[in-house]
Amino acid sequence: xxxxxxxxxxxxxxxxxxKSARRTVGVIWLSPAxxxxxxxxxxxxxxxxxxxxxxxxxxxxxxxxxxxxxxxxRAECPGIMTMHLYRHIRCYSEQNIQSxxxxxxxxxxxxxPVKKDLLLxxxxxxxxxxxxxxxxxxxxxxxxxxxxxxxxxxxxxxxVQPAANIRFDAGIKTVTAxxxxxxxQSNELKLKALTDFDARSQRKIRSDKVxxxxxxxxxxxxxxxxxxx
Length: 229
Prior knowledge:
The protein is α/β, with parallel strands linked by helices. It has seven helices and nine strands; from the N terminus they run ααβαααββααββββββ. The strands form two sheets. Strands 3, 4, 5, 7, 8 and 9 form a six-stranded mixed sheet that branches. A hairpin with a 2-residue loop joins strand 8 (212-218) and strand 9 (221-226). Helix 6 (115-128) packs antiparallel against helix 7 (131-145). Mean pLDDT is 83; it is low at 1-11.
């Protein structure tokens, strides 16, 4: 069952929406009392996850560029969905989970750029651009030049994805949940299904977020300056 479930999510199935294949969210809940063979599933899942890791490591270590990796995977596994090939299956066995609540997770990717490289990219775009684009680019270049490199940050929006808040006896753990989570336990489990995503809802600002100022945008990312501590 696990192998079939994994393959169905890893490969694009003819006649089915690719989006649905990527967004199969939920729980496979099995009771050892009613399904005695379920006790062997965690071991099988561990083997599948180990194989996923081995494949990912082989591809990354063997092929240098993203295009080479893409072509190598497609040559050996036509129709494979790389994201799901690498993504591990979540399986929890007899951990006395009390509830699982699904929600949409919004995240940003924040990175510290190399100031020299960032300036070079923007200056190259400046040289290629027409007069109407040069003024904002020049302003951005000047702002970056005046900012210490250690305070520069690049923020990129990460695609919204489903997540699960899992309540254990010891507390709550939040995990990404693009595929069904396998739960093996006899105790009752409360579930809250994933609702439709509302793009109008505002993301809550973290209380520990460092103050920053947006000085511009370039190449689909925002460029910020963090406050010196």
